[in-house]
Design brief:
With about 80 residues, the chain is an alpha+beta fold. The protein has two helices and four strands, in the order E-E-H-E-E-H. It has a domain of about 40 residues: Pemi-like Protein 1, Chain: D (Ribbon). Helices cover about 20% and strands about 25% of the residues.
Length: about 80
């Protein structure tokens, strides 16, 4: 598809057809990058604006059922005698 570059104030822009926006699920914002001399637009998904919402409650619930243990040993070996500098 060939589309004109148009003046928008002191900038230039390209109008994207409604069908293209719908097909790409673009509603409000896009991430714009330049990769290898190409302009790449990707839709920004606004599913959960507060991804850590209710984490405090989830952590308390985990504590109640004993599911709050460390998955990786929390130890640090500071014996540097055999290290090579």
């Amino acid at each position: 598809m060939i589309t004109p570059v148009v003046a928008i104030g002191n900038s230039k822009g390209v109008r994207l057809p409604k069908t293209v926006l719908q097909q790409c699920q673009i509603t409000k914002e896009v991430n714009l990058e330049v990769k290898n001399g190409r302009i790449v637009l990707e839709p920004i998904r606004h599913g959960n604006k507060h991804p850590r919402k209710n984490w405090d409650r989830a952590f308390k619930d985990m504590r109640k059922i004993g599911d709050d243990r460390l998955l990786i040993a929390d130890s640090l070996d500071l014996d540097t005698g055999d290290w090579k500098w």
